Amino acid sequence: MSGQWWLLMNKGVCRGQYQTSSSASTPSDQGFNPEGFDEHPLPRKIDLAVETFNIETGEVEARLDEVDAQLIALVKQDASALKMKIYTPLPGKEAEYEAKKREVIDFRAVGDEQDYEALDAENKDRRFVYAIADAAAYGDSVADAIERFEGGIASTEGRVASLAATEHATCSQIKAAGTAEAKQAIYEGIQWPI
Fold first, then answer.
1. 182 against 63, higher pLDDT
2. What are the start-end ranges of the E strands in the chain?
3. Least enclosed by CB within 10 Å: which of 17, 27, 55, 97?
4. Does 86 map to a domain?
5. For the purposes of burial, counting CB atoms within 10 Å of the CB of 79, is it exposed (0-12), middle (13-18) or buried (19 or more)?
């Protein structure tokens, strides 16, 4: 529909937007405007979630706090989705990752492979369940399994840390930008380290 957008206000509160047809000059002319509403012509339809109309200047102005909130939510959603691509989102996998990480820490606390071999069988079986199973599957040692775990952990955590750093830096840049357009450009220009 072509025509003019109007903002309908009652006691300073926006109650709605209305577009008149090209044949009518105001919402009242079309019989739309209820009693007590002021009519203000708009340069275009506005998104009331992130914009406001300044009656004194006749300009549409961005509600920067709302723009921030929406864009930051999108950044966090995007970052979360990318992080989930790194982790295997299956039930029990998180517990497995944590157990392997704990075994790496325990193995390094023990010392080296000789110190590990000096542990009694019960202690080994209880503390290094995944490493023992992994070593058996690969046909090598628990120390080799720990190295594999450590490499996987470092790779995963490094990638997740890079995503988190990009997420936090982008959110800070969005908050610091002075216009809705600049904030949107920052969001659209994110270079995710994937």
1. 182
2. 4-10, 13-20, 38-42, 51-54, 59-62
3. 55
4. yes
5. buried
Of 61, 47, 74, the C-alpha closest to 180 is: 61
Instruction: Please identify which residue in the block is written with the tokens 């990009």.
Output: 166
How many other β-carbons are positioned within 10 Å of the β-carbon of residue 116? 20
Domain of residue 69 covers 65-188
Same domain assignment for residues 128 and 174: yes
Does residue 46 belong to any structural domain of this protein? yes
pLDDT at 66: 83
Query: Residue 67's pLDDT band (boundaries 50, 70, 90)?
Result: confident
Secondary structure letter of residue 140 according to DSSP: S
| Phi/psi at 15 (5° precision) | -110, -10
Q: What tokens were used for 131?
A: 């490493």
* Residues recorded for the chain: 194
Q: Determine the average pLDDT of the residues in 38-63.
A: 66
Query: CB count, 10 Å around CB of 190?
Result: 16
More confident residue, 10 or 72: 72
Do 106 and 43 share a structural domain?
A: no
| pLDDT in the model for residue 1 | 43
DSSP state of 43: S
| Cβ contact 78:109 at 8 Å | no
Relative orientation angle of helices 129-138 and 142-176, to the nearest 10 degrees: 110
Distance CA 27, CA 46 (A): 16
Task: Out of 31-40, 83-92, 156-165, pick the least confident.
Answer: 31-40
Which tokens is 188 given? 């659209």
